[in-house]
Amino acid sequence: MRYRFGEKLRSIRERKGLTLKEVSEMVSVSESLISQIERNKVSPSMDTLLAIADSLGIDFEFLFKDYKRNRQVEIVRAGEGDCIVQPGVTFHQLSMMTEPDAEHSIEAFLLEVSPGSEKGDLVYGHAGKELGILLEGEGELVYGTSVYQLHAGDSISFSSDNPHILRNMGKKTLKAIWIISPPRKLFLKQGG
């Protein structure tokens, strides 16, 4: 599929009262190239497209918002998923969020919690459900005012609307597969 966002670029440029020459000078490419991009005659490099979007003051994502990839199967290859490291807690992405706003989507990650560390919040919950499967280590889930002891091989599921914290109570790193639905968009937040 060929992305056809030239019309969007031209429309925004014209609304802002900019000429092809002005945009080409801001982006450091030829006026002819800008014209060809706007007429969908050529596909620009990512750097050029980013520069054009920046010169027009638009978010890069705006250009692609009409294009959804609806793959039936998504694969995150070993070592290719994103990783978020926080003090005492590491999240390794296991699932791609093809529809991050869809009600029935999931977010899955390998969670590593260092001894004495925790993840979660005892003040607020959030909408949805969670499922955790402990692979290694031991810990406890504090759910509201209740505490549940967990050991390797255990699984736990719960409604996320109550405040909850997963704590590593053992002497080695707690590792668990953790699934949240709907997604908290953890991996979308890491840049901002």
Strands, helices and their partners?
Elements: H1 6-15, H2 20-27, H3 31-38, H4 46-56, E1 83-86, E2 89-93, E3 107-113, E4 118-121, E5 129-136, E6 138-143, E7 146-151, E8 155-159, E9 164-168, E10 174-181, H5 186-189
Antiparallel strand pairs: 1-2, 2-3, 3-10, 4-9, 5-8, 5-10, 6-7, 6-9
Helix pairs in contact: 2-3, 2-4
Could you give a quick summary of the protein structure above?
The chain is of the alpha+beta class and 192 residues long.
Largest sheet: 6 strands, antiparallel
Instruction: Please provide the count of β strands.
Output: 10
Average the pLDDT over all residues and give the rounded result.
85
Helix/strand structural class: alpha+beta
Helical run tally: 5
Number of domains: 2
Shape by Cα distribution: elongated
Instruction: Quickly name the level 1 CATH class of the largest domain.
Output: Mainly Beta
In CATH, the topology of the largest domain is named Jelly Rolls
Rg over CA atoms, rounded to whole Å, is 23 Å
- SSE order in H/E notation? HHHHEEEEEEEEEEH
